[in-house]
Every structure is written in C-alpha cells, then in structure tokens.
Write a structure and sequence with these properties.
- This protein is α/β, with parallel strands linked by helices.
- The chain has two domains: 208 residues, DHBP synthase; 77 residues, Threonylcarbamoyl-AMP synthase, C-terminal domain (Rossmann fold, 3-Layer(aba) Sandwich).
- 30% of the residues lie in helices and 17% in strands.
- The protein is built from nine helices and 15 strands.
- The strands form two sheets. Strands 1-8-2-3-7-4-6-5-9-10-11 form an eleven-stranded mixed beta sheet, with helices on both faces. A four-stranded parallel beta sheet has the order 12-15-13-14, with helices on one face.
- A hairpin with a 6-residue loop joins strand 2 and strand 3.
- The termini are far apart.
- The structure holds threonylcarbamoyladenylate and magnesium ion.
- The site of magnesium ion has 3 residues, from loops.
C-alpha cells in the first residue's frame, strides 16, 4: 500500500474518515497530537506495526505508545490500579503516558511492547487525534513521526520531509501546541519517571503526594530498547544456523525451513510481524534450544538481528 508521496489529508470529517479507513486497512497515517506528530498504525495488526519500524528505519524494536480515545478503551488494554486511575483522572487527556501491566488477551501486537508484559498507553488531548481514534475504533500504536535519530515533527510538513514515500497519509493539523513528547511514568508498580516531557514531573508528584522514583540504569530514558527487562525466551538461542542440531528447533527464514518460518518468501516486514509470536511458540515447545536461520542485515533485518542478539546474549541464572 506504499505511495510515492503521503497524501495530506485535510482536518475535516472527510480527512478523518479517510485516515481512519487507512488505519483499519493496515496502513500508516501520521496524525497530530498535542505533543508531536505520531506515526500511527493499528496496534492490533502485527504487519502494520512492523511497517512503523520499517518506515522509521529504526535499527531496533523500541516499544511503542498505544493511543486510545477514552478510558474505557485504555482499561481493556492495561491493568489500572488506584495510582494509575488517579493519574489518568487528573491528566488525561493530555501529555502523560502510563506504563502499566498489559492485559493478557487484549489483542495488542507483541511488537508494540517488544514482547514485554507491560504497555505504554496514553489518551492524547488533540481534537483531531481523538476524533481519529474514536472513528477508527482501534488502539493506535504511534512513535513520533520522524525517521530514526531525527527530531520529532511538530508540523505536517516535517513529517512529509522525513517520511516521504514510506507512509500512506498525513492528517494535517497544523502545529502541535506542546511541541515536546509526553512525560512517561511507569507504574510497575512503583511510580517512576521514565521520560520527562510535556507534563511537568512536579505536577505529577503533587497529584501523587509523593516524589517519583527516577529511572535507574545506564540507559537513557529515550532508549528503553536497551532495558534489561525485555522479553527473552527461556530457551538458549543459536543464531545464523544453517540447520537444527540435535535437541534444537529451527526458526526458519526464506528457503531455510524450520519448525516455524519467520517468512517463507523472505519478506522482512512479515518476519518482524512474526518474530515475537514465533519465539514464544518455539519457547513453549520446551526443547530448551532454538536455532535461528540467518536473517539479512538490512532494513527491518537489522532490528530483527538486534532483537535476536539480545535474546541470545549470555544471561544470569
Ligand atoms: O508524545 C509522545 O509520547 C509521542 C506522541 C506521538 O504520542 N510519542 C512518542 O513515542 O514520543 P516514541 O516512540 O518516540 O517514544 C516512546 C517511548 C520510548 O522511549 C519507548 O521506549 C517508551 O516510550 N516505552 C514504550 N513502551 C514501553 C514499555 N512497555 N516500557 C518502558 N518504556 C516504554
Ligand atoms: Mg521519538
């Protein structure tokens, strides 16, 4: 469904209807929020979410924020405890993202949360974003709508400049009022500031009546792709395998068939969409050893290989 140029959709009923339709068909639509433009895809569609990473040229699968129209939608996806409810009551809709336990069976693609059992979720405060979310009827996964490593876009023209030829459409909502990404607070369960952003941490602390814990570790908050908590299979992993050895199950790619194949046709978007599903499925077969066929190290293959290397890295215990 790729187009030479993204269509600029007008900020009216017809534009919103078309943007919602593209999302439901598995396409990518950039849309304005009060913080920055997001690059949206149906969060329940593995292939659509894989295409986000392809479009951004992200070398790794950082987990994405799920955007919802209302609290009811949010509560079907994430577990809300008392603290989460209090923060959502106070600051939603608005530039606050909550990282909460993911509800099993919520239907969110595992690629959205990089296989984690948590999910980042927010209700944006922008009339077009809210209308788009309610019209599409889908939770929408959206990172900032810029190529990896570039500045977050705060106008439709920035999006076109960066993602020309890689996405279906941009819903043109003018300039984003906040101009800075959302503040991210983790509640797993201790309230922790994961990323400072458009909502001042002081306002959150005032609402909680307690200071936020600060994100510890060597990672910068913007690179939780490196968080040690990422899903790793229980099985030992061997990469670049030409075939399974005794006691291994092979995760195939292209012509190299295995117990499961990431993509028989060698399509890296399809492979990314299948990655976490297949790893979990092979893991649950209980052989304890997974061999993985070589994956080309370009485009989405780089993100897949990054993820596989992390999964294969030596671990404690
Ligand atoms: O304002 C914003 O937040 C914008 C608009 C589009 O909503 N979005 C945005 O997304 O800034 P992105 O992908 O550029 O940043 C999302 C951040 C990343 O640092 C990611 O690692 C973190 O959220 N994140 C997502 N899910 C997470 C999780 N389960 N645990 C920890 N961090 C998570
Ligand atoms: Mg970003």
């Amino acid at each position: 469904m790729s187009l030479a140029r993204p269509i600029l959709l007008p900020p009216d009923e017809a534009g919103i209807a078309r943007a919602a339709e593209i999302l439901r068909e598995g396409g990518l639509v950039a849309f304005p929020t009060e913080t920055v433009y997001g690059l949206g895809a149906d969060a329940t569609n593995d292939t659509a979410v894989a295409r986000i990473f392809e479009a951004k040229g992200r070398p790794r699968f950082n987990p994405l924020i799920v955007h919802v129209a209302d609290r009811a939608a949010a509560e079907t996806i994430a577990e809300f405890g008392d603290t989460a409810r209090r923060l959502a009551d106070a600051f939603w809709p608005g530039p606050l993202t909550l990282v909460l336990p993911l509800k099993p069976g919520a239907g969110i693609s595992p690629l959205v949360s990089a296989g984690l059992d948590s999910v980042a979720i927010r209700m944006p405060d922008h009339p077009l974003a809210r209308k788009l979310l309610s019209t599409s009827g889908r939770p929408v996964a959206a990172p900032s709508a810029n190529p990896s490593g570039k500045l977050s876009p705060t106008a439709a023209a920035h999006v076109v400049e960066g993602l020309d030829g890689r996405i279906e459409a941009v819903l043109d909502g003018g300039t984003c009022p906040v101009g800075l990404e959302s503040t991210i607070v983790g509640l797993l369960p201790e309230p922790t500031l994961l990323r400072p952003g458009g909502l001042p941490a002081e306002a959150i602390e005032k609402c909680l009546g307690a200071p936020l814990a600060q994100h510890q570790g060597s990672d910068t908050p913007n690179a939780p792709g490196q968080l040690a908590s990422h899903y790793a299979p229980d099985a030992l992993m061997r990469l670049d395998a030409e075939k399974a050895q005794e006691g291994e199950v092979l995760l195939g790619f292209g012509a190299l068939e295995g117990a499961l194949n990431l993509s028989a046709s060698g399509d890296l978007v399809e492979a990314a969409a299948n990655l976490f599903h297949h790893l979990r499925a092979l893991d649950s077969m209980g052989t304890g050893r997974i061999a993985v066929a070589p994956i080309p190290d370009h485009g989405l293959g780089r993100a897949i290989n990054d993820r596989l290397r992390r999964a294969a890295a030596p671990r404690d215990g």
